[in-house]
Design brief:
By secondary structure, this protein is of the alpha/beta class. It contains eleven helices and 24 strands. The strands form six sheets. An eight-stranded parallel beta sheet has the order 16-15-14-13-12-19-18-17. The longest helix has 22 residues.
Length: 500
Amino acid sequence: MSASAITKLKISAYQYAEWTLTSDIPREDPWTQITVTAVMRSDDGRVLRVPAFWDGGGIWRFRLTADAPGRWTVRSECSDTSDARLHGQEAELEVAPPDASAASRFYRHGPVRIARGGRHFEHADGTVFHWLGDTWWMLMSERVSWPEGFSRLTARRVQQGFTVVQTVVGFQPDTRPFDGRDANAGGSPWEVDYKRINPGFFQACDRRLRHLVEQGIAPCILGGWGYHMSFMGVERMIQHWRYLVARYAAWPVIWCLAGEGAMPYYLAEDREAQIASQKRGWPKVARVVRDTDPWRRPLTLHPRQTSWDDTAEPDTLDFHMLQAGHLPNAPLAAQNNLAIGRARYPGMPIVNGEPPYEGHAGTNLADVQRYSFWTSMLCGASGYTYGAAGIFQANDRERPTGDRPDGGAFDAVTWDEAMMFRGAEQVARGHALLTELGVHRFEPHPEWVKASLRWGHEAYPIPWRAFAAGIPGECRVIYLPVRWYHWEGPLVRFLEPEIK
């Protein structure tokens, strides 16, 4: 491409255009040796600096998007100014109004952001976005086939009303780097010993992530698992995240720095030192994500228990996330941590990002799924992510289910069996009802209800307690988890006399 060539690009608002430049200068490790940036300038004076990603050989690509109609001029800058094919190239981007007929909610309403002054999420045009997630940690690997298996699972969740998928775009949980279980059709995320990032892995991820977006599901992208920081080091983790931002920030994604952010490797001897190092490292990575992402997609961290305890600087996150764990009393932990988080961070959404997985180790069946969902949402969660044994670990009939570090399997159930679990359908119906009632405006009101008589039987894992939340004067939702051999319901209190 000559220095004088100007590429013409056209898109609708909220969609993206791809601009490709090709260098003829050989480089051993292009991603770490140079940086390539596009300076976008709108007719009304806005300026964005958009990073390019290396896509193999001499190929560099920009993904460009805008949230409103208008015209942008684009000019490339390369840190190696002598590379005329990457430096000083020009393009024009014409942006039409959003496509109101588009199938994807994100092409009609825009990507997800945090609502101004509130605890909920919304699209770029202000339309409320209700977070109902599913846990697909290992589904960027080949453990679920593309396109047949992945598309079938996506269709099931779309039909049920799920809006988010949490997935790892990098080294997978419960695996040691380069043991092969993280690979997809394009290989592993990095070449062995982190010699160089591998674009082929991300090219295969593109197909899956794009399919989610087109079906109206927001990818919540994790860069790896907490202990991978200990293997990679902070600088390589930063390079990994720079790549994720350059490749996917133009899409309607949500960023999650890692899974179980302060988790040491299972077999490590220096566990406390690893935890402390990870807590110090994530703020450095978070700041790079912030500085690199021109569109500022929402950023969080999936924790062992709470995201504010898994990083040394919680204020580098845009919203918080909980993990309740998988014991029968796990929903109680979520209730307690929601109360703590809402008091400590009054202007931030909090998502229950890992409740008890349905069917995990043969436990946490539909009754626990209902209890976990309803109590989380009525205690103030801004979103809820379901999980199922077999799906989170992508168990497949054609491949060994070795998802533990020792090569064994957490669960024998396969993903296509797990996608039919009853609890997912019941959680989805609860989500639909709360969405219709305007749950984004709800506040917890435990004073509205008092459980009469006594607590449940000691053998039953769900305690005798009623939960209430809603909008004073408009709507009340009261949830009673269980009744144990008596028939008196809870006492509803402080009803407004003028409300019928």
